[in-house]
Amino acid sequence: MPIGFMATTPGPYPRRMRLDRPYKKLAQVNEMSTTQLPYVEPHQARKRPNTQFEELLGDSIERAFGNGVTELPDLLAHLNRAGPPCPLTSGEWTPEAYKNLMARLGE
Fold it and tell me: Which of 68, 69, 100 minimizes the C-alpha distance to 87?
């Protein structure tokens, strides 16, 4: 094959790829049927639906990130201003409370 030869991958969404570049596991993908191709579910690790608090917390954190917040003190200031209140303290978000809650929610 000439350098730069293009090939099309099998499957429901074919993709053109250059064969002069190394591709990992290309042979394995070609051998798999389309029903065996991996599919990543966004909430695949979830064991239960989110609680209302978790939904509110996620929305508030997303708004903070959308407003350019990138550091923990700024995120905590946003949460203290916009809510929801921290369930581990009297409502105020502290670095320790935030870290403990995130560890608990991540289990």
Answer: 100
Number of Cβ atoms within 10 Å of the Cβ of 86: 19
* pLDDT at residue 107, as a whole number: 77
| Helix residue ranges, H only, the chain | 26-31, 52-66, 72-82, 95-105
Token code pair at residue 20 = 């002069």
Q: Are 20 and 4 a contacting pair, CB within 8 Å? A: yes
* Residue whose tokens read 């929305």: 59
Q: What is the pTM of this model?
A: 0.58
Residue 89 buriedness (CB in 10 A; 0-12 / 13-18 / 19+): middle
How far is 72 from 58, CA to CA, in rounded Å? 15
Q: What does the pLDDT read at residue 72?
A: 95
